[in-house]
């Protein structure tokens, strides 16, 4: 994430003390260094409630992931129930796409399955009804 | 910048900046809390929360991340398996 200029914050209902011990005893052994982003504590779930990820029944937060742009605007989110982990590559792909669109100042959009160096589309009167000439469905599945 | 704090036995202070709006409900003296709606394309709710980061306890304010791309990730709990 640092490579693509993105800061990360993690949030759970655990205390900052538990975050420290988890970092020290387990996570730092996975990555051979301290966790490289702040681990936030949301012990009463109030932040999770604002973001719609706090589960009252179990008292924990579900796997919500929010992409926020430099203006503080929410560009995308994904929420999973606890047993299934995220696909970080897809998150990175989405961030790169949002960065590309922002970099183009809204002149380009990224079709389904877009990845860096793949074709973007330039919306305009010429393109209306003509996307089929510019882009094929198979491109969504190509690298 | 995040401000470091020395932890005590009380839970560190945390506050939401734009969490909820108190609205008067008609024909009802009670106030009802209405959550701010989270929508793509709209500003996210702001907050400040205590955090652990590289050996220190500190308060993190979401507004400090204006001007940067940010990924905010929630998860069920420390020491769980996934």
Describe it:
- The complex is a heterodimer of chains A (143) and B (82).
- Chain A has 143 residues and is an alpha+beta fold.
- Helices cover 29% and strands 19% of the residues of chain A.
- Chain A folds into 2 domains: 1-61, no CATH class; 84-143, no CATH class.
- Chain A has helices spanning 16-31, 46-50, 88-103, 131-134; strands spanning 6-12, 39-41, 54-55, 60-61, 63-68, 74-80.
- Chain A has a two-stranded parallel sheet. In chain A, strands 3-4 form a two-stranded antiparallel ribbon.
- The model of chain A has no long low-confidence stretch (mean pLDDT 94).
- By secondary structure, chain B is mainly β.
- Chain B has one domain (3-65).
- Chain B has strands spanning 3-4, 15-16, 20-24, 31-35, 47-53, 56-61, 69-74.
- In chain B, the strands form 2 sheets. A 4-stranded antiparallel beta sheet of chain B has the order 1-6-5-2, with no helix packed on it.
- The radius of gyration of chain B is 17 Å and the shape is globular.
- Chain B starts with a strand and ends in an 8-residue tail after the last strand.
- Chains A and B meet through β1, α1, β2, α2 and β4 of A and β5, β6 and β7 of B.
- β2 (39-41) of chain A pairs antiparallel with β5 of chain B, so a sheet runs across the interface.
Q: How much beta of chain A, percentage-wise?
A: 15-25%
Structural class, from helix and strand content of chain A? Answer: alpha+beta
In whole angstroms, how far apart are the ends of chain B? 31 Å
Can you count the helices of chain A? 4
- Unreliable sequence segments of chain B: 23-33
Give the tally of structural domains of chain A. Answer: 2
Radius of gyration of chain B: 17 Å
Quaternary structure: heterodimer
Please list the strands of the largest sheet of chain B in the order they lie side by side: 1-6-5-2
